[in-house]
Design brief:
Two copies of one chain form a homodimer. Chain A is of the alpha/beta class. In chain A, 43% of the residues lie in helices and 18% in strands. Chain A has three domains: 52 residues, Orthogonal Bundle (434 Repressor (Amino-terminal Domain)); 111 residues, Rossmann fold (3-Layer(aba) Sandwich); 127 residues, 3-Layer(aba) Sandwich (Rossmann fold), CATH 3.40.50.2300. The first copy, chain A, has twelve helices and twelve strands. Chain A has a six-stranded parallel beta sheet with strand order 2-1-3-4-5-11, with helices on one face. In chain A, strands 7-6-8-9-10-12 form a six-stranded mixed beta sheet, with helices on both faces. In chain A, helix 6 links the parallel strand 3 and strand 4. In chain A, helix 1 crosses helix 3, helix 5 packs across helix 12 and helix 9 packs across helix 10. The first copy, chain A, is elongated and about 70 Å long. Strand 2 of chain A pairs antiparallel with strand 2 of chain B, so a sheet runs across the interface. Chains A, B: It comes from Weissella hellenica.
């Protein structure tokens, strides 16, 4: 049986430091943490979670609550969950998944929540343990991408590539992220003194394809789509009408998980940085747990250049 | 504070029955369980997990271990995880996710494991708590779809629709599920006394598109693809070569999550029944926990008819 002393000796650190890496990783520098963790893995030292929990009055368990319906689950949740698991594991925490409005605090130190609606905010504000949501809401610690900057970057790219009219293909939902994506387009167009054209549809490639075929797109059109599904439909409308992409029409989507790669031409898209989102969510939650004051984080997304822009 | 007695009174059952629904749900009929659970939810009775765990020598926590790399995560894992969470929640268990070879049994009653390789089997056989894997392996309790029947159904459909030559587009990996999918095609073709044509490629739509364009497909060809990604590439090769699908070429994919809907024409495909897989995995694990002898379950998949067959 490998002991804590064995780990300390091999890692050339004190037993106190090993204990801190295990029990309070947030108090140790990333360098030392990585080194000690490597030795722990090499020697096969098993951390006794129950003993550690008892000693620290913590459960070392975080619950991720997904409030979306199963039909609305986007495939990128698989990646978000795995990244969250990886980051929490590195800090010695486990991740529990819940799929209902279950804010029972037994055995958990904090909540990470996705799919929050307005009706949930009061419940969240009254919880006795820290909460970080994936999304945006004043008064609750949140991590999100900066959706406004995302579509702003998309619109600016199409403007720079001298498409004549640029339209926005939005989702017909009353959600903050959708409004922000619309605003990013609007701001870039206003700055460029170009006329604004906004359409709102169901988030479905077949719907956007039919709609754009009905619109009879002109050459030199740019399309900023609020999702990759909408962008995929736009690409198919162009193919149907014999318009060449990106020569005649430029298209930029949003999300950058799976869908953009499955298109006939890989989509240029605003990429959700899921690993960075997972890291920020965990860091904010652990900071709150250590009693620090934290602020919501909005990550600036980047364009992933594909074959639907020049 | 709502008590156990309050729940018993409202549900018109004994306190013993309420206790059993909470502590040993597997011993109570689905009907009574549903009724009592509804009363528990209505009254807002909070189950004290810590007390229950102490009383029953159980943790009421199951760990799902995903052994795939993050790059290999297929989008359907999001659905599988949510279904597992839902089923376990109904039995009063939590689901913990792990993403490494971490078989630490502290705080868990059993493991559900996906992405198992041959090198893991010895470790799994020596665990002190029950294990159910998603996949197939003699000697370990497993839940999987019957991959052989899946491609057999696909091949028989194409034979019935009188495509002249039917080829199999497989994945170039040395895995049991791939061999079984190949065998299902092979058996159906042997029964029909038709010549066998098997190709093996990387699981990538672009690769299969290029490959099939190089092959110059003839009209009246049927294609059984081992994945929807390969089927998507096949559809695109047909579009490129001016072959009409399903008139000239019939295509059947495999998996039925996301990819088949994103194709130019919705793919006919063998659907992974993820909800049924999740239910079976949990039932087998809970049966093992109650000391029952269990056997691996292979679920017969169904064809989802899309627009790539007649």
């Amino acid at each position: 049986m490998v002991s804590l002393s064995d780990v300390a000796r091999s890692a050339h650190v004190s037993k106190m430091t090993v204990s801190r890496v295990i029990n309070h990783p947030e108090q140790v520098s990333l360098e030392i943490r990585t080194e000690v963790q490597q030795v722990i893995n090499q020697l096969g030292y098993v951390q006794n979670r129950a003993g550690r929990a008892l000693a620290n009055h913590r459960h070392y368990n975080i619950a991720f609550i997904l409030l979306d319906n199963v039909d609305e689950i986007e495939p990128y949740y698989a990646h978000l969950l795995i990244h969250l698991t990886d980051v929490l594991q590195a800090y010695g925490y486990t991740l529990e998944i819940r799929h209902e409005h279950n804010f029972d605090v037994t055995n958990v130190d904090g909540f990470l929540i996705s799919g929050v609606r307005h009706s949930d905010y009061n419940a969240l504000r009254n919880l006795s343990i820290p909460v970080v949501i994936y999304g945006s809401e004043p008064g609750i610690t949140a991590v999100d991408i900066d959706n406004t900057i995302g579509t702003q970057l998309a619109t600016e790219l199409l403007l720079k590539q001298s498409y004549q009219q640029i339209l926005f293909l939005g989702m017909d939902v009353d959600e903050a992220f959708e409004k922000n994506r619309e605003n990013g387009y609007r701001q870039a167009m206003q700055t460029a003194k170009k006329p604004i054209q906004i359409y709102k549809l169901a988030n479905d490639g077949h719907v956007s394809r039919e709609f754009l075929i009905g619109l009879s797109l002109m050459p030199k059109t740019g399309i900023v789509a609020a999702t990759d599904r909408l962008a995929l439909g736009a690409l198919r409308a162009c193919i149907y009408q014999g318009l060449s992409v990106p020569h005649d029409v430029g298209i930029v989507g949003f999300d950058g998980i799976y869908v953009h790669q499955l298109a006939e031409q890989s989509l240029t898209t605003v990429k959700q940085p899921l690993k960075a989102i997972a890291q920020q969510m965990v860091h904010l939650l652990l900071d709150e747990l250590s009693g620090k004051t934290v602020q919501s984080v909005y990550i600036v997304p980047e364009l992933l250049i594909g074959e639907t822009t020049k």
